[in-house]
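Section handout, structural biology tutorial.
Before the tutorial, make sure you can parse a SMILES string by hand: atoms, branches in parentheses, ring closures as digits. In the record below the ligand is magnesium ion, and the chain has 339 residues. In the tutorial you will relate the predicted structure tokens back to the input. Do not try to memorize them.
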Amino acid sequence: MPGAIYAEGLVKTFGTVRALDGVDIDVPEGTVLGLLGPNGAGKTTTVRVLTTLMRPDSGRAEVAGLDVLEHPNAVRRSIGLSGQFAAVDEYLTGRENLEMVGRLYQLSGRDAKRRAAELLERFNLADAADRTAKTYSGGMRRRLDLAAALVVSPPVMFMDEPTTGLDPRNRQQLWDVIKELVAGGTTLLLTTQYLEEADHLADSIAVVDHGKVIARGTSDELKTRTGGDVVEVVVQDRQHLAATEEIMRRLGDGDTVLVEHTRKLTVPAAGGAKLLAEIIRELDGRGIEIDDIGLRRPTLDDVFISLTGHAAEDEPPPGAGRADSTARSAAPAKHEENQ
Ligand SMILES: Nc1ncnc2c1ncn2[C@@H]1O[C@H](COP(=O)(O)OP(=O)(O)O)[C@@H](O)[C@H]1O
Ligand SMILES: [Mg+2]
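Predicted structure of the complex:
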């Protein structure tokens, strides 16, 4: 039986851009799916299709057991949405914004007021409740946006990059609110560029890049797929990066990943400490000085780089090329069996 959020073969093109290139997802009721991917991966487009804001070119989707194309109004009544494009009215106060949402969802005036007050309290907005939203900081707007999505507790929630742009303290607070929400039985699809966030909140993770799900599993499963531990080397001198990369590629047990600006290289180490010793010997023999070397468990970051050849959070400055110039994989990624 399909889960509370289900999509099969979603395709959406904008001119020549294939924003979605056959996305399949299935989120069991009461669980959290983290849709993890860099800018432009297709996360928002997926959310827009699932929340009935956009029709796919092909594919189908069900939310709360309802077909999104056949019953968009019923779907809208079953979901909450917070995200980059959700509307906070700048000219209303925080309180008025939340009361308005309550009225839209047909709460009585009294209930709408009560719910607004509760949420303002909960999201640390009580002091600012009667100021217009246009005077709010970025973090306050995000909190108001999330509060608006929680005015009625919907069985299915979508959050599009809920913590992008928040400072660590506010991010932590939002994580706590999200955990409470999920503990109450809500099914949640959350998009994020932050590996740590997916690690923290999601029961399962779908890694998306270029409109495709390129891997899925729990955080642990994804880390294990990278092949056990990795050897990480930080070379002292940038000019030794190429030689070190050659050594690690030759001796290591998978794709070598080089991040130039941190002078850091990693390679999967199925052989564990034995490979570590070999690499140290070889570096020594060639007189290559290192700042650090060690064996460690892969992070979701390693997983992402090994899957896509670029870092999830390493965004290039506007106008520059992709992040491939700072992080690249020495060999093409070959983890495509899950598409
Ligand atoms: N309305 C649109 N018109 C044209 N291109 C779009 C539109 N929406 C998204 N795209 C393109 O589709 C791709 C996926 O975008 P999006 O789903 O917003 O990615 P993400 O949310 O993962 O950053 C990007 O290349 C983006 O530029
Ligand atoms: Mg987006």
